[in-house]
Amino acid sequence: MTVIGGQWGDEGKGKIVDWLASRADMVARFQGGHNAGHTLVVGNETYKLSLLPSGIVRGTLSVIGNGVVLDPWALKAEIEKLTAQGLSITPESLQIADTCPLILPIHRDLDALREDASGKGKIGTTRRGIGPAYEDKVGRRAIRVCDLAHLDSLDPQLDRLLAHHDALRAGFGEPPIDREALKEQLREIADFVLQFAKPVWITVNEARARGKRILFEGAQGVLLDVDHGTYPFVTSSNTIAGTAAAGTGLGPSAAGFVLGIVKAYTTRVGSGPFPTELHDDIGQRLGERGREFGTVTGRKRRCGWFDAVLVRQSCAVAGVTGIAFTKLDVLDGLDEIRICTGYKLGGRTLGHLPAHAAEQAAVEPVYETIEGWQQSTAGARSWAQLPAQAIKYIRRVEELIHCPVALVSTSPEREDTILVRDPFSD
Ligand code: IMP
């Protein structure tokens, strides 16, 4: 099965993925890099993961597929941090595709240089070098994990990579790349990464043939997908479920049940259109009650009402089978709750997000208002424990997004979950 974010990321994937990972034989990341941020709370420990699949916390075999861009130094730092928290991360518990492209320091530099030079066109990236690394992959200039075992013959590849980057850097007034220093950095980190390197496509295909349960763990969200999201304010990978197959080396049927994680309201980090964004007390309240600060960058998230137009679109383009509805308790105590059901644009009514960024920024949300609930939903574990109005809200969301609810999550605790349909039993 595959778990993806149904909005702009930060939908609360960590808890759901952890819960599902405890029942999976293998957890696989298939896109993105250490721009992601998953927080897992297990007992008294809080684990913050960026690059590693969530299975690593419970010792489930974790794989990083070819679709991920890998920063070797970030990998090492994350492993060291988790090891200090008592986890054991070994080649038996972690495999990394030998075809993963590397994020190098020059990618991080370029990400920051571009953002700083972009004025109002700034994307608001995580500055982790994700975009530049994917560009080099597609441009056939990337240094990959397998190259770390062949550093003595890297020069022809470096010629191509450096010719490209030196020209870009010159445009920013930066000095050319120090080739020998870069090689030395790679030499120092090579063995650490290579101990985990494997042809991951074999691992996942064998697991599938043996009927093992593979959990594909998406990062970011559908609205940040490079094709289907709010371009150009997106990340540089495909975040939809289909990428699970291409990003690990399996056929297109690999995704299985697609669980879209959807928050009961909307948030976004970074720049870009956000039709239902709230700049008032309610927006402030959602941010505070929902603790809406980025796991990776600590940035404050923008908050707004639930946008059924966007989520309907996400569920359609990503092929979502059912959603996990999260953070419902953040809406507790509101007198009224609004749901965006359509957009107005220059006298027209739209049922989808237009493609052009300027139109996306200009659409006016059309709202439906429903009465809120005053009781607490926090910790509910069955429908019977939810106030009638909360159930009405969930049912209306299902209707508007054309997709059923499979799970409702009512607190960060694993057990505080209402299971409607088990994604693993499909
Ligand atoms: P990049 O992925 O660092 O290039 O950033 C591109 C956009 O995606 C920015 O708006 C980021 O804030 C956003 N983004 C990247 N990763 C995440 C994530 O894990 N959660 C939420 N937003 C993200």
Summary, kept brief:
The chain has 426 residues and is of the alpha/beta class. The chain is built from twelve helices and 18 strands. Strands 7-6-5-2-8-1-9-13-17-18 form a ten-stranded mixed beta sheet, with helices on both faces.
What would your notes on this structure say?
It is built from twelve helices and 18 strands. Strands 7-6-5-2-8-1-9-13-17-18 form a ten-stranded mixed β-sheet, with helices on both faces. The protein is globular and about 65 Å long. It has helices spanning 13-21, 72-84, 105-117, 130-138, 155-171, 179-194, 200-209, 243-246, 281-289, 308-318, 357-362, 388-401; strands spanning 2-5, 26-29, 38-42, 45-49, 61-64, 94-97, 197-198, 214-217, 258-263, 266-268, 302-304, 306-307, 322-326, 336-345, 348-350, 364-371, 405-409, 417-419. With 426 residues, the chain is of the alpha/beta class. The mean pLDDT is 95. 31% of the residues lie in helices and 19% in strands. The structure holds inosinic acid. The site of inosinic acid has 21 residues, from helix 4.
